Amino acid sequence: MPSMRQGRLITLEGGEGAGKSSHVGLVVKWLEARGREVVRTREPGGSPLAEAIRQIVLADWSEGIDAHTELLLMFAARSAHLANTIRPALAAGHDVVCDRFIDASWAYQGAGRGIEDQHLQALQTLVLGDLQPVLTLVFDVEPAIGLQRARSRGETNRFESERSVFMERVRQAYLQRANQSPDRCEIINASKGLEDVQLQVLHALEERLA
Ligand code: TMP
């Protein structure tokens, strides 16, 4: 049997209201136009079990949800997503475009909630092994603008009701991670208009994946 090429994992990341979700379709279309089979997915979620965990982790619980529970639910969802959606797709040679992935845990649970790096690293090693996205687009926008955009869409989850100081920590963590991994990450200036952002995305795809 001819050996099948492993697919590529491409992720989109950013704080609330950075507009990344509007560009997932653009990335998918770009890959499909180049003859790739593409699986579009998201985190938390992306498989029936992981989507069920998403409902739990994004809900507002009257008893509150402590940082460790949140962290473990994010990684539980990721583990199911990897086992049932991402790894089978990559093994079948399909590209996978994922709206949020591991960097979100470092940014939100790490910088946002204060979980220590050693714990994030241990969970990353357990759940991902050595899997890394080949490309991560980091949509960067000032928290004040992002939060306003997110609220004007009217879909508020627990994170979208966080204040700007939380989102600024998330933002700085994303920027720091992107700057530490320039081969993997491309920062997209998401405070620009839609067309400008689309051009930045297409440029990054041409430069890095063509
Ligand atoms: P969204 O992707 O629909 O915007 O919502 C998902 C929320 O979950 C978002 O506010 C960020 C948060 N999140 C984390 O806190 N950690 C994670 O690892 C992931 C994937 C998402």
Question: What does it look like?
Answer:
- Strands 2-3-1-4-5 form a five-stranded parallel β-sheet, sandwiched between helices.
- Helix content is 55%, strand content 13%.
- It has 210 residues and is α/β, with parallel strands linked by helices.
- It has helices at 21-33, 48-58, 67-91, 102-112, 117-128, 143-152, 164-180, 194-209; strands at residues 9-14, 38-42, 95-99, 135-140, 185-189.
- The chain is built from eight helices and five strands; from the N terminus they run βαβααβααβααβα.
- α2 packs antiparallel against α3.
- The structure holds thymidine-5'-phosphate.
- Thymidine-5'-phosphate (TMP) binds next to α4.
| Gyration radius, in Å | 17 Å
The hetero compounds bound to this protein are: thymidine-5'-phosphate
The helix/strand class is: alpha/beta
Helix content: 40-55%
Distance between the termini: 27 Å
**Uncertain spans, ≥5 residues at pLDDT below 50?**
none
Largest sheet: 5 strands, parallel
- What is the chain-wise order of helices and strands? EHEHHEHHEHHEH
Total of DSSP H or I helical runs spanning 4+ residues: 8
The 3D shape can be described as globular
Spatial order of the strands forming the largest sheet? 2-3-1-4-5
Compute the average pLDDT: 95
Report the strand count.
5
Strand content: 5-15%
